From TrEMBL:
The keyword Secreted applies. Signal peptide: none annotated. GO terms for molecular function: metal ion binding; metalloendopeptidase activity. Residues 66-174 form the Peptidase M4 domain. Its EC number is 3.4.24.-. The lineage of its organism: Bacteria, Pseudomonadati, Pseudomonadota, Betaproteobacteria, Burkholderiales. It is found in: Secreted. This is Neutral metalloproteinase. Keywords: Hydrolase, Metal-binding, Metalloprotease, Protease, Secreted, Zinc. It comes from Caenimonas koreensis DSM 17982. The active site is at E167, H273 (proton donor).
Length: 351
């Protein structure tokens, strides 16, 4: 069987989970550390999936969603709770996941002109209530899984449009970049995201999650909060998982956030979430330079630019691709073209 080009991509980085585990009592620490171990194992379980799973048959309806109840277990997908066009269920998290996936699907379809993750209308399956007090959400390579939170640090994920949109966007990247953007298969180890390409993969999800949030709220770039996961923490734990405006600003995110926004600080050993701050901030700078609504100009620039990338593309590759697309769409020397160049220069990827 062929390997899939997708990976198990998590919304909440391992470092944040480990940090909270270290601050917990014995029971809480054991729970979170077990989840880290399980998440690593889940990557391994996906290594045998058929490549055909990434290319489902086109759907016949405008949107195609199914939400399942994993019932606190890890066997997927679980019991079907809500299919497309079904009335809301009594399960609030199922309804929240259904609605948020619908917003992400509609954004890509009506604004980006892309029909679902694969561009051909594939159905998006999501399992809520995954695992025991599971404090994360993820794209597995073929579906989304959403935990209820551990109760002490995280209050759940299904209600968060930013988290759901981030994970859905990993599905888009999987189908956009042949071979998987930054997906590596270490010998004898599960697949993971590595290097500049892996950070670009994470950044694509943060950037599109931000645009989806702003589009849904009708916000301009000045009105937006430019953070991801601001609504998943229990009180007093943190303010957001990541900030595109100020990567690594612990006053805006969480106590040990180490994201970087300057390419001169990049190391090839950096975690993909850490270094994703570089392209994240490049997008933010470009959006602020343009003003108005981020998705109206930069949405297609980023989508078409990333469509030119390859599995091992670098930050500079992404910079050239998005700058070239901006020139093609809006003209060389246009405000959009100059804004995209300014974004990549601000993070020292372009000089």
């Amino acid at each position: 069987m062929k390997r899939m080009s997708g990976c198990v991509c998590f919304a909440v980085p391992r470092k944040l989970i480990q940090h909270l585990a270290d601050q917990s009592d014995d029971e809480g620490r054991a729970l979170l550390q077990a989840q880290i171990k399980h998440s690593t194992g889940l990557r391994g379980q996906r290594s045998g999936l058929s490549a055909a799973a990434a290319h489902p048959e086109p759907a016949t309806q405008p949107l195609q969603r199914r939400v399942y109840d994993a019932q606190g277990r890890t066997l997927l997908p679980g019991t079907l709770l809500r299919d497309e066009d079904d009335a809301p269920t009594r399960d609030a998290q199922a309804n929240q996941a259904y609605d948020n996936i619908g917003i992400a699907l509609q954004f890509f379809k009506s604004v980006m002109g892309r029909d679902s993750a694969d561009g051909r209308g594939m159905r998006i399956d999501t399992s809520v209530h995954y695992g025991f007090r599971f404090a994360n959400a993820m794209w597995t390579g073929e579906q989304m899984i959403v935990g209820d939170g551990d109760g002490a640090h995280f209050k759940g994920m299904a209600h968060s449009l930013g988290i759901i949109a981030h994970e859905f966007s990993h599905g888009v990247t999987q189908h956009l970049v042949k071979g998987g953007l930054g997906v590596v298969w270490p010998s004898g180890m599960p697949p993971t995201l590595k290097g500049e390409a892996g950070s670009l993969n994470e950044s694509f999800s943060d950037v599109f999650a931000s645009m989806i949030k702003q589009w849904h709220k009708g916000q301009t770039v000045d009105q937006a909060d430019w953070v991801i996961g601001e609504d998943i923490f229990a009180p007093g734990v943190g303010k957001a998982v990541r900030s595109l405006k100020a990567p690594g600003n612990r006053q805006a995110t969480w106590a040990q956030d180490d994201q970087i926004s300057d390419y001169r600080r990049f190391s090839p050993t950096d975690d993909a979430h850490k270094a994703s701050g570089i392209p994240n901030h490049a997008f933010y700078v470009a959006a602020m330079a343009l003003g108005g609504k981020s998705w109206e100009t930069l949405g297609q620039t980023w989508l078409k630019g990333f469509d030119k990338l390859r599995a091992r593309s670098t930050f500079l590759d992404a910079a050239h691709a998005t700058v070239d697309v901006a020139a093609a769409l809006h003209g060389k020397g246009s405000k959009a073209h100059d804004a995209v160049k300014a974004g990549w220069k601000a993070v020292n990827v372009m000089v």
